[in-house]
Automatic annotation (TrEMBL):
Coiled coil: none annotated. The gene is yajC. The keyword Nucleotidyltransferase does not apply. Residues 119-130, 143-166 have a biased composition (Basic and acidic residues). It is a single-pass membrane protein. One of its GO terms (cellular component) is plasma membrane. It comes from the Bacteria. This is Preprotein translocase subunit YajC. Residues 93-166 are annotated as: Disordered. It comes from Streptomyces buecherae. GO terms for biological process: protein transport. Keywords: Cell membrane, Membrane, Protein transport, Translocation, Transmembrane, Transmembrane helix, Transport. Residues 133-142 have a biased composition (Low complexity). Its main location: membrane.
Length: 166
């Protein structure tokens, strides 16, 4: 056989080998992570629940999901083993000491959008009564100034809010 005809098969077998190798590495790392579990370790399950390991058995774990609430889970349900700082930050809201050099992000965007000197001017976004009266009078004047309506009787003219149903 010619090497050109065998080349697609060789590439296919090589790709399958690489895919299975990376999958085996991930499985090996997950098994190592599960074997290193100890009581007191904070974990996240594959379902997204955070808990503390209380007891470790062959294939199962006893987890404390809330104070005084225990549940038995399979070891395969562990999605990640968290270090203490991350677990406390997520579950208890305890922030670890952070660098003072880190940029401070404001809680709202008002400090980012305000320009100096804009504090004096405020835009009134409310509808005023004067604007409503002027708008209604202007619409009536515009209806009367149309040439096709000039010959019509006042009762035949349609106002801005009238409809065809009578």
């Amino acid at each position: 056989m010619n090497i050109v005809t065998l080349l697609p098969f060789i590439v296919l077998i090589g790709a399958m080998f690489l895919m299975t190798r990376s999958a085996k590495n991930k499985q090996r790392q997950a098994a190592q992570m599960r074997d290193q579990l100890q009581p007191g370790t904070g974990i996240r399950t594959i379902g997204g629940m955070y808990a503390t390991v209380k007891e470790v058995h062959d294939d199962t774990l006893l987890l404390e999901v809330a104070p005084g609430v225990h549940a038995i889970y399979a070891k395969n349900s562990v999605g990640a083993v968290l270090d203490d700082a991350e677990y406390n930050r997520i579950v208890h809201g305890i922030e670890s000491e952070h660098d003072d050099d880190a940029p401070v992000v404001p809680d709202d965007a008002s400090s980012l959008t305000e320009a100096e000197g804009d504090d004096d001017r405020r835009v009134d976004m409310t509808k005023g009564d004067a604007a409503d009266e002027t708008g209604a009078a202007g619409a009536a004047d515009a209806d009367a100034s149309r040439p096709e309506d000039a010959d019509a009787k006042p009762e035949d003219r349609k106002g801005s809010g009238d409809d065809d149903a009578k």
